[in-house]
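Homework-ish question, so no full write-ups if that breaks the rules, but can someone show me the predicted structure for this set?
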Amino acid sequence: MIENKYDSSSKSSILEYAKILEGKSLKDSCGDIAISSRANKGNFGTLLEEFYFGYKPNSNSEADFYEAELELKSTPLRRLKNGEWVCKERLVLNIINYLDIPYEDFMNSSFWKKNKNLLLVFYLWERELLPLDYVIDLVGIWDFPQKDLKIIQRDWNLIKSKITSGQAHLLSEGDTIYLGACTKGSTSEKSFRKQPFSDELAKQRAFSLKRSYLNTIYNSLNGSIEYDSILSESELDEGSFDDLIVRKIEPYFSLSVKDIQSRLGLELNQHSKNYFSSISNRIIKRILGVSEEKFIEEFEKASITIKSIRVEENGRIKENISLPAFKFEDLIEEDWNDSILKDTIENKFLFVFYKKNAEQHTLERAGFWNLSSKDMDEFERVFNVTKEIIKSGEIIRDISEKGIVRNNFPKLKDSYLTHIRPHATNRDDTYSLPVPDKKTKQKEFTKQSFWINSSYVEMIYRALS
DNA sequence: GCATGATCATGC
DNA sequence: GCATGATCATGC
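A: Not a homework solution, just the prediction itself:
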């Protein structure tokens, strides 16, 4: 029915035909399929392939339009509170074949063969709508820029080397910069696979472009945001991503915050209470050579967050790191794999440590860190414990005479990695509970968040020395 | 003294 | 008005 609408051997013809989708839903574009009962069930990508492009979805190792070397991918955008649209999820590409990859090179890999050129269809996801009614916002072909490709190629090699050294079960999303090895399939036993150089079963994983990277693709196809890059293409030949960036910070090691400020010509307002956190972020941006009002391209693409930590004179770290407060109602609806929490913690962090020295702090060390697969499993465990507590409605343990409310959420001692603490303006700053508390019948509870234990941060601090 | 709960300050 | 980073207060 769609024959002759485009030339499947020509990139430009396919793109031209795909572009017609912009501003419309599949129902608009394909009309008659709306009455098909099947069409109300399929997911967006399947419907797009079958009814608009007119081919059956497949799992070939070749690209979807193999003559044109073009792989079709659709991906949802979700609206933020401020009205802006952002990518909702990572872009999942082909499955990682643990048994084959040790014998592949990047350039002849199944990954590169299939995904060299992506035809991307961004659609506006809305909870209440059927896939047929999602409006297609933007269509474009993505050719990886050389600079990105260098990073992606290294990511691919890192994933390969973990598998080659019998560590497929230890793969973790945060290991890599732009290209991830994301879990694919259910978390149940059956999604475990054999790996070639170890008897341990490993979770099935697929190559994926991180959500943050996909977001910058969307923005650059749209031409909407300006980024400042910190690594040139030639620099990338001189070392790993991590090393290159830490090397840029190194000249400032052992200088006091004040000295760095005067060296960089940064205004200082010591009296402001969040002086430290704001000044530290500004310092790192300036050291990396990025103007303050712009985003760091590589950090945005890789979703790298800067964490500035103060170290006591005796080498201890007092502060736990807070994560954004969660909504009780949202958390119980989430599966770990598509949870906001996992999304927040699975990428890399740039830790910058400032050591207290007499009355001032000096920049002591810096380095990248990401949670290991074991850490991710531990977070998943604590996440699920928390979820069950909210679901059971057994939240409050007791209330002291002074009105201090003790709860049953996981505590510092319950995990080496994370605990739950209030994160609110005051006790009355609450979110509603999906199940009223059994003891007090209250329907709301003080906002809480996951915190990363200071002892874990201390461990990072020692590891980066 | 430390763990836990409560609250503050700032900036968007 | 809220998110975020930081710090204070209470009680074991």
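Now go work out the reasoning yourself. Hint: Chain A has a mean pLDDT of 90.
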